[in-house]
Design brief:
The chain is α+β, with helices and mostly antiparallel strands. It has a single domain, classed as P-loop containing nucleotide triphosphate hydrolases (Rossmann fold, 3-Layer(aba) Sandwich). It has seven helices and four strands, in the order ααααβαβαββα. Strand 3 and strand 4 form a beta hairpin. Helix 1 packs parallel to helix 4 and helix 5 packs parallel to helix 6.
Length: 151
């Protein structure tokens, strides 16, 4: 899922999801039902053009479209950038749920280190484009994080 909105703005929410579902072994309807279960707000918005959605709604569509392919790994690039605190909390809850219920491995690039550490098993802190440290998230200290961020 790209950092930007990641939707086709002239297409409806449902059309965006259908594009994501063009490949896969399970029925598209089954996968769409799962996306609507995960992101219930999208059901009511399914005929709305994606370009008219809020930032949080747009991120839900982009994530849902990626999930339509039944991935084993989900790559998320700054999924909460520019979102309101309510959507940030919701999105991290959904990341946790996707991993727990679907067994999807999630690779997350995120500036919000506090939130990312709440859901991470492993962490890589980048400093000036290089890996500063790689370790279990539970072992990372605030001091190591500050050093990595050069604070």
């Amino acid at each position: 899922m790209p950092q930007e909105k990641g939707t086709f703005p002239e297409l409806s929410v449902l059309e965006n999801l259908n594009i994501g579902g063009m490949i896969g072994k399970r029925s598209r309807d089954e996968r769409i039902a799962e996306v609507f279960e995960l992101f219930p707000d999208l059901r009511a918005l399914q005929s709305q053009k994606a370009g008219t959605l809020s930032g949080g709604e747009s991120r839900m569509v982009a994530c849902g479209r990626a999930l339509m392919q039944d991935p084993r790994v989900l790559l998320l690039d700054e999924p909460t950038a520019g979102l309101s605190p309510l959507y940030v909390d919701m999105f991290f809850d959904k990341i946790r749920e996707i991993h727990r219920t679907r067994g999807v491995a999630i690779v997350l690039a995120e500036q919000n280190a506090t939130k990312a550490l709440e859901v991470a098993d492993r962490v890589m802190v980048l400093s000036l484009g290089e890996a500063f440290t790689v370790m279990d998230a539970a072992e990372l200290t605030t001091q190591q994080l500050k050093e990595g961020y050069r604070i």
